[in-house]
Design goal:
By secondary structure, the protein is α+β, with helices and mostly antiparallel strands. It has one domain: Heat Shock Protein 90. The chain contains six helices and eight strands, in the order H-H-E-H-E-E-H-E-E-H-H-E-E-E. The strands form two sheets. The chain has a five-stranded mixed β-sheet with strand order 2-4-5-7-6, covered by helices on one side. Strands 1-3-8 form a three-stranded antiparallel β-sheet. A hairpin with a 2-residue loop joins strand 4 and strand 5.
Amino acid sequence: MNPHFIFNSLNSINYFISNNDRLSANRYISDFSRLIRTTLNNMDEDFVRLSDELGSIEEYLKIEHLRFGDRFDYTIMTDPEIVPEAISVSPGLIQPFIENAIWHGIMGLQGRKGMIRVITRRTDGKLICTVEDDGIGRKKSAEQKDRNDRKKSRGMALAIERLRIINSLQRTSCQIRVADLYPDRDETGTRIEIELPERG
């Protein structure tokens, strides 16, 4: 989990409290504590139930939506043929890409609200989670990035490295694919397809 997310969450709680918005502060603390508890519980696990992983993702999105509800909406969809309680997946591979979609795709939008979709499906026998955003896209994001900003998010790099290690240990070939969601538009958005290591 990105340390900046934790610090920003605590700042948001402080903001709600200082503005006497008790309902938002209580909701945020409740969602934040659930997410932290789930993340800590999953840290030592090689596999967790897909239902738990999707629940953790939903908690994360709820927290970010509470902070930035005027900037984006989100939806989480799972293929009806998938039974999330019956499948175990390697945890923590999806959230960094959702965080990246929010901060580098959606936050760069001007004049419209963005959309993030998390879709889990099975294709050609592989369990795939797709993260889509209709934000500004990778090229525009790189152009807008402040060259003086030395903060670097390691979340995606760590997820990619972790998947490489899992592939090596389990002799699998799970991949992560990145593409423009709308290549013909000025704001191309981004689609990330993550092949999830799983255990029945």
